TrEMBL record:
Residues 215-385 form the AAA+ ATPase domain. Belongs to the GSP E family. It holds the Pfam family T2SSE. Gene3D superfamilies: 3.30.450.380, P-loop containing nucleotide triphosphate hydrolases. One of its GO terms (molecular function) is ATP hydrolysis activity. SUPFAM superfamilies: P-loop containing nucleoside triphosphate hydrolases. The lineage of its organism: Bacteria, Pseudomonadati, Pseudomonadota, Gammaproteobacteria, Oceanospirillales. This is ATPase. It comes from the Bacteria. It comes from Marinobacterium aestuarii.
Length: 424
């Protein structure tokens, strides 16, 4: 209800997120009054925003006149927009959802709202009336999805119809009130040229990675939260041949593959009775029966890793996935840990052997302190030697000089594989 249509990009020392209580009180009473009048006039049902606008504007002017409130003290256009957001949108969140510059929206209770723009988090001058107001917005978001959130089920992870991902958690699990996180979906996928212009990589790396995808290398993209793993996966997938059948598996469908023959699978959370959950591992096993040329696993984070590695090693070359890790070496350790936790009864040496023979390449991405996202390392996974997975760095980002360095060429085996699939 308190979303502003004005520019919200204020620095922390300019920020005043707590409006005067009397102003907030006016908005609450105004909202209740307008809703009552709309219901009395039968205007609340099956009306679009543009149809409601003139009615709401008239009611706002009438209310201010009845209460002897000076119109000059308030921006009537903003008041009308806030009311419409409450009635046909998502309240204070709506203006942020409509702002193309905003990538993430983070709500920590009624009084703290943050957004990410250009890779940087900043607090914005918005607030909700109270915790119940936040909860109403969350429930409005998830109701069309057939999901619910309450004390018996205080967490929810879902995808909005526009593709945006939302996660909500409420008391008693969240101590300071309901928390809502929204990762906005970008309808127009970035291209490799966008990444080059943004300094995420250079032209030589771009061509090399395109050749690796076309050459059906098994690739793991590693990085921290928000570093751009899914974005890079989307872009690299554009080099998959149009005759290849690709099956994607995700918790919430974000990938925008455009090679023409894509089957998209999405996990399913349990229902209110705790039944019906479908995990990534189940989808991956099913995908193997769907005659895929490649499998793209949105994120490797559990027991499905073992099945993914086996798929990479048994005829599904060119498969790709992402993993949360701070370095290429850390990503290998994480894979080992997840395979172990999958219940696979094998020695550490065998697990390392499976990883070494399945993966061809690790691409490490990072978000720098200034918000810039870059590919920091491209590493070839070679083989197992002396009980350790051998790797060879191919490209590296030099932060001090803000330059990308080419370090080594591919090993002979991978060079031959690349040439073979390129028809050289």
């Amino acid at each position: 209800m308190l979303a502003s249509n004005t520019d919200l990009r204020l620095s922390n020392n300019q920020l005043d997120v707590a409006p005067e209580e009397e102003n907030l009180g006016l908005r609450v009473s105004l909202h209740a009054n307008i809703i009552e009048r709309l219901e009395e006039d039968g205007l609340m049902f099956e009306m679009e925003r543009f149809e409601l606008h003139p009615h709401v504007q008239g009611y706002v002017r009438a209310y201010l006149l009845e209460q002897d409130i000076r119109k000059s003290d308030y921006d009537i256009g903003q008041l009308v927009a806030e009311l419409l957001d409450e009635m046909v949108g998502f309240g204070p969140v709506q203006a942020l959802l409509d702002d193309p510059a905003v990538d993430d929206i983070l709500i920590n209770g009624a009084r703290q709202v943050f957004v990410e723009r250009g890779g940087l988090l900043e607090r914005v001058p918005l607030r909700f009336i109270n915790d119940q107001h936040v909860l109403r917005v969350i429930r409005r978001m998830i109701a069309p999805l057939g999901r619910r959130i309450d004390e018996s089920s205080p967490m929810v992870d879902a995808r909005l119809p526009d593709g945006s991902r939302i996660n909500a958690i409420i008391p008693p699990l969240s101590i300071d009130g309901p928390c809502l996180s929204i990762r906005k979906f970008k309808p127009e996928a970035l291209t490799i040229e966008d990444l080059i212009r943004g300094g995420a990589l250079n032209a030589a790396m771009s061509q090399f990675l395109a050749d690796c995808v076309a050459g059906r290398f098994n690739i793991l993209i590693s990085g921290s939260t928000g570093s751009g793993k899914t974005t890079l996966l989307n872009i690299l997938s554009q080099n998959i041949g149009r005759r290849e059948r690709v099956v994607t598996i995700e918790d919430a469908a974000e990938l925008q593959l455009r090679n023409g023959h894509v089957v998209r699978l999405e996990t399913r959370p349990p229902n209110s009775e705790g039944q019906g959950e479908v995990m990534p591992r189940e989808l991956l096993k099913n995908a193997l029966r769907m005659r895929p040329d490649r499998i793209v696993l949105g994120e490797s984070r559990g027991a499905e890793v073992l099945d993914m590695l086996q798929a990479m090693n048994t005829g599904h070359q060119g498969s790709m996935s992402t993993v949360h890790a701070n370095s290429a070496r850390d990503s290998l350790v994480r894979l080992e840990m997840m395979v172990t936790l999958s219940g696979f009864n094998a020695s550490d040496l065998l697990i390392k052997q499976i990883i070494a023979t399945s993966l061809d390449m690790i691409i490490q991405v990072a978000r720098l302190p200034d918000g810039k996202r870059v590919i920091t390392d491209v590493v070839e996974v070679q083989d197992l030697a002396d009980g350790q997975i051998r790797t060879q760095p191919l490209f590296r980002y030099d932060a001090g000089r803000d330059q990308f360095e080419s370090l080594n060429g591919l090993s002979v085996g991978l060079s031959q594989k690349q040439a073979r699939y390129r028809g050289c």
